[in-house]
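Example record

One chain of 253 residues, shown exactly as stored in the release files.
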Amino acid sequence: MVYEIKTQGKFKYIEEGEGEPLVLLHGLFGAMSNFGGLIDYFRNYNKVVVPLLPLFDLNILDTSVAGLAKYVHRFVETMGYKNVHLLGNSLGGHVGLVYLLKHPEAPVKSLTLTGSSGLFENGMGETYPKRGDYEYIRKKTELTFYDPAMATKELVDEVFDITTNRLKVIKIITLAKSAIRHNLGEELREIKIPTLLVWGLNDTVTPPMVGEEFKKLIPNSELHFIDKCGHAPMMERPEEFNKILHPFLDSLK
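Predicted structure tokens for this chain:
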């Protein structure tokens, strides 16, 4: 399904359905399309919102996890949302955590993290490709998933296009380094809202032990694993993901 991208001031976002806002934050190579299975399902129960994070549009000083968290804060304030259910995948989870830690007064009712960075991640790291290495990008994209067939040509092309743009490459590396530097650790104990952790058992980017560490550190949290699933469970196993998320959200009504 194709969704209308709305604009308010400098914010671009999808907003579908009615009810308490379910705000979805995508990762470093993520896009709104990553959340198709969630939008289609939850638009019947919630107002599903996907802000387009300005990964490549912030000035270089604000190109950081904290800069993106500031953007999310301004977005939620501008839209006037209340009783927000915040969900983040990969870097999006990390951004959500920093937003909540910097703004404990934020109108957020629950948090869902899936394959989140913030404690540990295997990123592109030091082996970031020379621009133009399509085969490398294809293999790296396949590693995001348990089933390499999930890395469709369309998805690989999207990532490849980013890596052929010199300025975008600089921004991606800057964000990745910011994520590694901005390690949260013990700070996570300050997050008191109900938190759902959904991890792919076959996630090689943020392995299952990362989910277990989040569970130890975030007081009011529960952890679920999905088998035969990699770093983006909501994309690779949307039905199983929704079966875990729906009762969690229902329990908070």
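Notes: The chain has a mean pLDDT of 92.
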